[in-house]
Amino acid sequence: METTLKELLKIAEAKNIAFASFNAPNYESALAVVEAAEELQVPFILSHGPGHDKYTDITRVMDIYKSLTKHVKVPFCFHLDHTSDLDYIEKALKLGFTSVMYDGSHESYEENVKNTIKVVEMAKQYGASVEAELGTIASSSYGNSETLLVSSSEYTDSNQAKDFVERTGIDMLAIAIGTVHGVYTTKPILDLNRIKLIREVVDVPLVLHGGSGIENEDIQIAIDNGIRKINYYTYMTLAGGEAVQRFVNNHEKIFFHDISLIAIEGMKQDALRTMKMFTKRDI
């Protein structure tokens, strides 16, 4: 059942849980997510961003998403991840994305506010939800620890978050508390209490980026403090790659169709574990 991210997160709020937003840049990863969600009967989010166009461009990936979800009964939505390109956002909305994220976190505060307002107005024409980001979330670039150095002064400020939400009219806010995109090269030091402080002054669901690699205990605290959507990709795609690597190491002749199936199953198992964790089920 297709819906918007705003409606999906109302379910999460009512149950005090979070839903995973899985970046799924190709058929195999999207199928793994859909199969896991149907097996557990858990709502889910299929997400695509401009950085993944090199794997499957946004037009083709939407065709994949729609074909795989045609008969799905659990609630789901299609979400556009990190972009500051307004034309790209409009293209996503025209293609059928029911949620879009405008990332103006690297702009000045006022510029972020101004452009986010534009995206909110644009999305209203399509009945879509809008996520925006405040603060700085680092990227590990798959092992480059130099990019992990983000000062706590760049974390999301609760007073600024309140002003931002009120002025922009966004539906959900991505916050910075010390998480990192990509592979964690060291254990992250997370300001989990900051989630609670922000949640007390804003009336929209909060989003956590860099969800891969965070310990289960910290995930549960984050959810209890108000996180309702957690972005997830890196460790799922690694699970697919590791499953393929094990297969290749143990077989002399390799057929591509076998590799594809092995990758899907590896990613599915990781998606199952993640969905259970975020929805507070036994793993």
Question: In terms of topology, how is this protein built?
Answer:
Elements (H helix, E strand, L loop, with lengths): L4 H11 L3 E5 L3 H14 L3 E5 L9 H12 L6 E8 L2 H10 L3 E4 L6 H16 L4 E6 L3 E2 L18 H11 L3 E4 L4 E2 L10 H8 L6 E3 L7 H9 L2 E6 L1 H16 L6 H23 L5
Parallel strand pairs: 1-2, 1-10, 2-3, 3-4, 4-5, 5-7, 6-8, 7-9, 9-10
Helix pairs in contact: 2-3, 2-10, 4-5, 6-7, 9-10
Name its key features.
TIM Barrel, 16% strand, alpha/beta, eight-stranded parallel β-barrel, 10 strands, two-stranded parallel sheet, globular, 283 residues
Number of domains: 1
Assign the CATH architecture.
Alpha-Beta Barrel
The whole-angstrom Rg is 18 Å
Structural class: alpha/beta
Stretches where pLDDT is under 50 for at least 5 consecutive residues are: 140-149
Strand-residue proportion? 15-25%
The spatial strand order of the largest sheet comes to: 1-2-3-4-5-7-9-10
* Overall strand count: 10
Distance between the termini: 26 Å
Mean pLDDT: 90
Tally of helical segments: 10
Description of the molecule:
This protein has 283 residues and is an alpha/beta fold. It is 46% helix and 16% strand. Mean pLDDT is 90; it is low at 140-149. It has a single domain (5-278), classed as Aldolase class I (TIM Barrel, Alpha-Beta Barrel). It contains 10 helices and 10 strands. The chain is globular.
Concise summary:
The protein has ten helices and ten strands.
